[in-house]
Amino acid sequence: MADEKKAAAPAFDQEKLLKLVQSLQFGWFVGNVITLLGFFLFTISYFKILPDIGFIWYLISLLGALISFGILLVQFVQRNGFKVPLLIKDDNFHYFLLATFLIAMRAYVWITLVPFVIFSTFHVLNYANSQLLPVFGLENNPISRHITAFVNKNNLASIQISCGIELLTVVWLFLRMITFRKRSLTPFLVFLIFLKKRHEVSPFTRKYFDFIGAQGDSAVAAINNPIANEGWGHVKIAFRTIDSFKLVHDRSKDEEKAK
């Protein structure tokens, strides 16, 4: 009976674990864990459950983002070489820069961490499922199947939600700026530039802007007021003018190549 229990027990692969912890990818995993831990502690500090040292956890959460996205950039350069035109189009580069600026500006705004947390959640789940569970012989465990099902079902939605939250973040930072909150102007401008870059490279972000534009058209048509029509027209012209200036990527060239 004891032999049967021993045979049925999951096999722990110590050698595989040692190889994992020495890999660059494990450092990426640790960075994502730090992001989640820092966000959790910052959140409960925000609601006064912990002593009011939330700013430390905010910075730690972003430090985790710097580690994880920094490692991805190192791997990108290893694969492609240090090619600036490619690098500035890479999503990981955008988020690395954003985390760097947020640390430097010390805005300590809760919502600015949420996109990082969404990404880190799925990264941690993926890594735990594909790398850590097999170390303990649990790759066929129901836990692994549940993680796989959850990630497959929600991964695309998580990216869409993250893009939506980035738009909400700009709105929130704008409200902080016009109410003269401390350290509010620079974070708003930085996030505005970040959103411009995301609009150039992310179809999800563009879909949100298209949706907002369609809703604005419908609302103005329902109002049927000449002043509202003229004002909304000026807003759309302003957005088209801003869109004509490319920071990192001119997608119209891609559209021409696809024809």
Explained architecture:
The protein has one domain. The mean pLDDT is 88. It is globular. The protein is 80% helix and 0% strand. It has 259 residues and is mainly α. It is found in: Membrane. Belongs to the PER33/POM33 family. Keywords: Membrane, Transmembrane, Transmembrane helix.
Largest sheet: none
Count of DSSP-assigned helices = 12
Specify the overall morphology: globular
Order of helices and strands: HHHHHHHHHHHH
Percent helix range: over 70%
Proportion of strand residues = under 5%
Could you say how many structural domains there are in total?
1
Cα-based radius of gyration, to the nearest Å: 22 Å
End-to-end Cα distance: 69 Å
Key phrases:
Nucleoporin, mainly alpha, PER33/POM33_regulator, transmembrane, transmembrane helix, TMEM33/Pom33, 12 helices
Short description:
The chain crosses the membrane at residues 26-49, 55-74, 95-119, 156-175. The protein is mainly alpha-helical and 259 residues long. The protein is 80% helix and 0% strand.
